[in-house]
């Protein structure tokens, strides 16, 4: 496993993407989006989102410079860059793990050409002469409902792309709600082509009873938060609500994460994290922040090997341009995986990157043949005190 | 055009026939019958009923796959509790059993609350919204893609300052998702910041849990005495995951287990699909990131999934009024073999208030998934169209040296999304191809010139490509890295042609 893997081929393509990469990786405070790559949406309430997108060979579609403007409030930056920084697939029969983002890439030829039926009512965006990104706005049901017929229906902006790797397909979707909520996730579909001889590591499918191998995907999201106008003064808080010994009451405990941290979920303590700006506040003087609502837990195993990057769920690091892939990070000046990125750097009022590992186990079924009915693994980023009241 | 017309006429005729026979409500009055046939032909039909406590419940729930057989999935589903303990222990509500979400606690919905849907009345009041929604993507494999549809049914019930939105989603592929939205306004405020969140108006919104429970009376294929409930774990043994299926023989209360990625399955013991596999549904608790493990007085919060025998007196997960008082007592050792089985599932949302929650609180949502497993023999929504041949990318001629370690990924695709099988002839000695992934790998052992032919087949049609692979003998002392380098140089000249090919060269160091 210590083999150094040199990836060649793609000569011209790689060369150009390297040039592109060198400018896009340093995430400057004055970020400038490539011409034609901005997406913006203003809802009827006046709430608005704007962001930039780009395509990389490895991560596929990467969203950056994401701003939210609450209705009747200030436009502020939320995220510098959001990418799917690795997909590790572990097969239940212990056949070789795959690291899809670095071994194959979600961009390049993996990135699928979308047709209008996959983007109904939306707008397709081109990259390298192909329609690869769907932008669509639609109604999203209730924002809230209250007494005296106080009620509001909301809308959302959705951005979607698809990548095909060895016949498996990954739909990558981010939804931006009118109330500031971001919901992001991966839907797996395509074909399950792997079979096994190990009867406990697969499920008999089709009339031939072939054993389709069951497996776990670990999706590693890289979230470079840049709350407010400065990208270098974000503060992460870890908040727990600890039950009393009789479990009748809970006491909130807030801890500022002052140096890099690898953390695991503790659902019984309701542990969660929020990223706040050190200086910018809402008009009631509360720090503006986003919290991570990470509800995916029932399949959040720590992997089949003792790989250190699978041992935790959330990693908080100081921004480092060469920390790009959660696993198989090849930049020589950086650690090779996210567990090594956590090396005691100060994270108090810094440029913060949060890495979130989301695990999803699949036991194939007859219904997946074929194609596989999409299975989503989503997480939510929720504004917390972004505004002093509900602006909708 | 003609074909389409015939199809439409046929569908129309079929639906007319259907309504006059099989589609008529057989288990309830027409006004309580929901019968949704999606544009692709899949169908859900069921009855609904109003109850003062549970609100709208659903009975006799049947799924008909596209071109498939109509079968009962569930005899009855209902919300079984909304338990809301506050962090300061100031109060611990049991909203459903104590207050109820039916009757006067059910809102009259306005048409703008049910966009593109239809409102269904109870006692002259529009209480239920029925909508059919087209999804983004139901599946995709190359160009074989479908959006898919789901039926959703919801009502809205205020309980105190909270407004609950129980929603049932029935998908055209047989999946069911019970959802619960909670909106309205925060109910309780205090002054102690350690029990909640200091809001902009200097009140502390007190943190609280919503423990939502559902009671699911499965009667797969309508035969109510031959369902089995199984727990499936994937145990880690020497780097492998060994699937272990444990059938329950008596009533049980169980927790999720991330390390074994546990889920549960309800299976009919006699009915099989066309592949000979038992028809079943998986119950997947996908949102367990918040959990309540409450005080000893609330043992029903100590587990997530429960199996009991069906008992009409067992209605509420807690504060149950006749029979046992809560789920923990319902699980009392009765045999579930050859008995009518009920599954209970709980999902928790922990609400730490935010300033945005005032004066009105945006809805937060919780759900679980009930997913068919081998209910159908295949993906019933995928059209079997005329087969398209696969395509294979050109591979440029290659130069290597003996003892080079090679990993070469042959790129092929199939617009129908078929599984592909790779075959190769005349590979340099020492190399082999993975017939399902198309990866050529190994260490070259013998010099020579090889005309390599690669063929990829989708089972019906195939495509092939060929190229020359010149293998020279490695000079003494030269490392395999040298071989890699020369190939890299060659590749940079052929970069455009190699667009479709990944090469990885392993350099042992």
From TrEMBL, chain A:
Q: How does it assemble?
A: Homodimer.
Record's signal peptide: 1-26
Copper amine oxidase catalytic domain mapped to chain residues: 48-390
Its protein name is Amine oxidase
Question: What cofactor is needed?
Answer: Cu cation
EC numbers listed for it are 1.4.3.-
**Cited SUPFAM superfamilies:** Amine oxidase catalytic domain
Matching entries from InterPro entries are given as:
Cu_amine_oxidase, Cu_amine_oxidase_C, Cu_amine_oxidase_C_sf
The text of the family note is:
Belongs to the copper/topaquinone oxidase family.
Q: Which GO terms describe its biological process?
A: amine metabolic process
What domain of life? Bacteria
The UniProt note on the cofactor reads as follows: Contains 1 topaquinone per subunit.
Q: Which key words tag this protein in UniProt?
A: Copper, Metal-binding, Oxidoreductase, Signal, TPQ
GO MF annotation list: copper ion binding; primary methylamine oxidase activity; quinone binding
Q: Please verify whether the record's keywords include Metal-binding.
A: yes
What is the source species? Cocleimonas flava
PTM per UniProt?
Topaquinone (TPQ) is generated by copper-dependent autoxidation of a specific tyrosyl residue.
From TrEMBL, chain B:
Listed cofactors: Cu cation
- The top EC class is oxidoreductase
GO molecular function terms here?
calcium ion binding; copper ion binding; primary methylamine oxidase activity; quinone binding
Name any Gene Ontology BP term. amine metabolic process
* Catalytic residues of the enzyme: 95 (proton acceptor), 162 (schiff-base intermediate with substrate)
Q: How is it modified after translation?
A: Topaquinone (TPQ) is generated by copper-dependent autoxidation of a specific tyrosyl residue.
Q: According to the UniProt entry, what is the EC number of this protein?
A: 1.4.3.-
Q: Which UniProt keywords apply?
A: Copper, Membrane, Metal-binding, Oxidoreductase, Signal, TPQ, Transmembrane, Transmembrane helix
Give every Copper amine oxidase catalytic domain span: 143-379
GO CC annotations, alphabetized: membrane
Extent of the signal sequence: 1-24
Q: Which residues carry this modification: 2',4',5'-topaquinone?
A: 162
User: Which Pfam families does this chain map to?
Assistant: Cu_amine_oxid (PF01179), He_PIG (PF05345)
Q: How does it assemble?
A: Homodimer.
Family in the record:
Belongs to the copper/topaquinone oxidase family.
Q: What is this protein called?
A: Amine oxidase
Q: Which organism is it from?
A: Cocleimonas flava
